[in-house]
């Protein structure tokens, strides 16, 4: 809950927003959070933006009939640091709404992870651990698209920025003492790269877990189907899984069915076969034709890890465990198991080999390679 003397204002008119922006523009930093809805759409629908300032906390109703240009100008100002917790989803929805990302950024979840907290520590748990305050989380699963907003919703939304300045100040002081502030700023800045949120259809296949272990023909078909699904979901503004579930997509890529009856035999709903069966079959045919003509990207097929690979993986993991233990960090902050597997496969475009991690863990991992 905000402190008793913190004013909380729900902003739903242009006059209120203009006054709020004038107030926020006086701040050197802005604690910031968003609320959005995404259960039945492809793109997140921004519903509320909460911003703290010396004048109080403004909860800006982005579903009201408002010109948000002034708000974005204040938020995006490069001289004004934005403080967010677990910022990735907030950055994504702001990018979708405004076409840019709001740097510079200090992410309190990243900062906390670099001080020994769990990598995915929640805001409420950090506020309790660092500030000794227990927050009400009863509105966690509320529908932010419904109007009017209740007093409980507005108070909950205000809570999400009320303690960010104090939390950031405490974490930053500890980071400076540990010589890790630059680490936190580097990792926070990485979240501002628009490429991180790219919705390019040709890269949609990367969301399919385990595809790298499939034969080239399966990969080619899955890539085609994933790109088709991405375009359809975007055009209809519906979740990907509503268009074609991952399991069904992979079944189609692995099967040899080339007629509507075969699609239904794979378990696809009759309605999907009726509406999209011809398009799905056409994508499968194109994939096979491209594969035969050598027009698809080189397959990313990987062999399943062998016993010897597992032994090498364990040796690299031991290096990470040792360094992480010395630093008091969770190992995955330095390198994930996926990073280590990719390293063994020869990849060098990896997070442990960039930025501050290169000296801390990357060189040691390279030296430990067989």
- The SSE order reads EHEEEHEHEHHHHHHHHHHHHHH
Mind telling me the CATH superfamily name of the largest domain?
Answer: Ribonuclease H-like superfamily/Ribonuclease H
CATH architecture of the largest domain: 2-Layer Sandwich
Helical segment count: 17
Radius of gyration: 24 Å
What's the domain count? 3
Helix amount, in percent? 40-55%
Hey, roughly how much beta strand do the residues contain?
5-15%
Task: Describe the strand arrangement of the main beta sheet, using strand numbers.
Answer: 1-4-3-2-5-6
Question: What characteristic shape results from the CA principal axes?
Answer: globular
What is the rounded distance between the termini? 54 Å
Mean pLDDT score: 91
**CATH class annotation of the largest domain:** Alpha Beta
What is the compact description of this entry?
The protein has 370 residues and is an alpha/beta fold. It is built from 17 helices and six strands.
């Amino acid at each position: 809950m905000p402190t008793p003397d913190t004013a909380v204002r729900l902003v739903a008119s242009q006059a209120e927003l203009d006054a709020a922006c004038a107030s926020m523009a006086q701040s050197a930093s802005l604690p910031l959070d968003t609320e959005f809805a995404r259960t039945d759409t492809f793109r997140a629908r921004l519903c509320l933006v909460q911003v703290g300032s010396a004048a109080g906390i403004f909860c800006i109703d982005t579903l009201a009939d408002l010109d948000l240009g002034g708000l974005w100008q204040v938020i995006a100002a490069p001289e004004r640091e934005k403080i967010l917790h677990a910022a990735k989803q907030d950055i994504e929805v702001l990018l979708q709404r405004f076409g840019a990302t709001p740097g510079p950024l200090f992410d309190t979840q990243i900062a906390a992870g670099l001080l020994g907290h769990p990598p995915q520590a929640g805001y409420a748990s950090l506020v309790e651990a660092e500030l000794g305050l227990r927050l009400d989380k009863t509105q966690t699963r509320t529908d932010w698209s419904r109007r009017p907003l209740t007093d409980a919703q507005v108070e909950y939304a205000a809570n999400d920025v009320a303690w960010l300045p104090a939390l950031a100040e405490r974490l930053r002081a500890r980071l400076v003492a540990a010589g890790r502030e630059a680490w936190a700023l580097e990792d926070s800045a990485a979240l501002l790269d628009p490429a991180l949120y790219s919705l390019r259809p040709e890269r949609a296949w990367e969301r399919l877990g385990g595809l790298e272990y499939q034969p080239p023909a399966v990969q080619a078909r899955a890539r085609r189907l994933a790109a088709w699904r991405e375009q359809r979901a975007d055009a209809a503004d519906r979740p990907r899984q509503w268009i074609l579930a991952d399991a069904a997509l992979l079944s189609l890529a692995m099967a040899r069915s080339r007629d509507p009856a075969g699609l239904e035999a794979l378990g696809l709903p009759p309605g999907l076969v009726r509406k999209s069966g011809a398009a799905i079959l056409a994508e499968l045919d194109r994939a096979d034709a491209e594969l035969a003509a050598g027009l698809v990207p080189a397959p990313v097929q990987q062999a399943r890890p062998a016993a010897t690979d597992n032994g090498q993986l364990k040796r690299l993991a031991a290096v990470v465990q040792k360094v992480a233990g010395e630093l008091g960090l969770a190992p995955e902050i330095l390198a994930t198991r996926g990073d280590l597997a990719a390293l063994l496969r020869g990849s060098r475009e990896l997070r442990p080999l960039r930025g501050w991690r290169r000296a801390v863990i990357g060189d040691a991992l390279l030296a430990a390679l067989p």
